[in-house]
Amino acid sequence: MADDTMSMEWDSPLYRESLAQFEQVADLISLDANIKDRLRTPQRSLVVTFPFRRDEYGRVDTVFGYRVQHLLTMGPTKGGIRYAPDVNLGEVAALAMLMTWKCAIVGLPFGGAKGGVRVDPTAFSRAEAQRVTRRYTMEIINFIGPDQDIPAPDLGTNEQVMAWLMDTYSTHVGHSEPAVVTGKPPSLGGSVARREATGRGLVSLVPAVASHLGMAYEGARVVVQGFGNVGRYAALAAAEIGCKVVAVSDITGAIHDDRGFDISALMRHADAEGGVKGYRDADEITPEALLGLECEFLIPAAVGGVISAENAADIRARVILEGANGPTTTEADTLLTDGGVFVVPDVLANAGGVTVSYFEWVQDLQNYFWSESEIVGRLREIMNRAFSDVLQIATSRGVSMRTAALIKGIERVASAKLARGVYP
Questions:
Q1: What digits encode the pLDDT tens for the residues 301-328?
Q2: Domain regions of the chain by residue span
Q3: Would you please indicate which residues are annotated as catalytic (active-site) residues?
């Protein structure tokens, strides 16, 4: 596909970043040229515009929605739906591509997908959020399904949004279909431990990382940038295994305490006050200063691009565990690795969410539900096996963990595509 066509259709900073990473690894492993060309762009992209009625009955707004399926080779596609004012086709396409590699790295039978609606969910009432969700579901209803494409929560969406999506889909197909989405409430077939899965999966790698680097993790200082679903449960899990969470930030500000936070108390404060700012006995610092704190583990768990070539030299963490999608730019990743920082990339570190989503989908299809201990144990096993595989590739080939993870994911996808061939 011509580069100018790609630029017109999917061009965005995140897409360019994701594509550059893919092409670098594809060249490194001498990927078949036809497969390389095929994987550069999404297999299916849907752009919709639709109206929805605001609470003021006479006001009707028209918004853009997207659903992108990067790869159909591996099985149904899988990926979240985000509500944000800056959602665009390029961002959604990039995240769908990253989801393809993520699923392949941990061995899930999914291709990557992503969706979004260009709205500000913080400006909506509950009723408006429901109307947007139900109308968006109808716009993409022929694009999704338990054997076709399975959405999940993402930025700006949650269990309730997934419940509305599942109900709308079920109503129109004429029967209850819980397997059409994951990340829904347990009362509708959602899996226990799904909400905290990404954060807990990430922290499940801490012992293996510490062992590899010859360092202790008990008492290790942890800094968490972002205190949403990923960051707060990562902080909680880190505290539970004996780490000391010394700094946390969210949209309200950043706080620091060398003694370590009581994470349960901090979560209650954030829920009551709308953020971490103002937490008792904590020092307020700038978000920029938080990233530069000396610590053993830094967990960027908010948005993409927060660690760049401009601030990479300020990072004083021994290990970075990427909870967010794309928090480190390509240039920063090189600078950090050259500087001795051990980076566990997003496509591996935050794969706990999609792994437990896979568990939920399997349970819904079987109508047989597992215990929380079974889910957590299987999550830990899958994450640590994937880490071991990626570490072996990084060590044997002399490449970074990010490159090694992408090698593992891309080679698995390429093998499947070569086995299936081309039709007709």
A1: 988 889 999 999 999 999 999 999 889 9
A2: 43-176, 198-349
A3: 114
- Read off the amino acid at residue 53: R
Structure tokens at 353: 């969410």
pTM surpassing 0.90? yes
What fold does the segment set 43-176 form as a domain?
Rossmann fold (3.40.50)
- Per residue in 62-81, pLDDT (tens digit) is 999 999 999 999 999 999 99
pLDDT attached to residue 195: 81
The whole-number pLDDT of residue 2 equals: 46
CB 134 within 8 A of CB 81: no
Give the chain as a 3 state SS string: CCHHHHHHHHCCHHHHHHHHHHHHHHHHCCCCHHHHHHHCCCCEEEEEEEEEECCCCCCEEEEEEEEEECCCCCCCEEEEEEEECCCCHHHHHHHHHHHHHHHHHHCCCCEEEEEEEECCHHHCCHHHHHHHHHHHHHHHCCCCECCCEEEEECCCCCHHHHHHHHHHHHHHHCCCCHHHCCCCCHHHCCCCCCCCHHHHHHHCCHHHHHHHHCCCCCCCEEEEECCCHHHHHHHHHHHHCCCEEEEEEECCEEEECCCCCCHHHHHHHHHHHCCCCCCCCCEEECHHHHHCCEEEEEEECCCCCCECCCCHHHCEEEEEECCCCCCECHHHHHHHHHCCCEEECHHHHCCHHHHHHHHHHHHHHHCCCCCHHHHHHHHHHHHHHHHHHHHHHHHHHCCCHHHHHHHHHHHHHHHHHHHHCCCC
Two structure tokens written together for 409 = 């994911």
Domain 198-349 = CATH 3.40.50.720: yes
Tell me the percentage of the chain whose pLDDT exceeds 90: 89
| Intrachain domains 43-176 and 198-349 with the same fold | yes
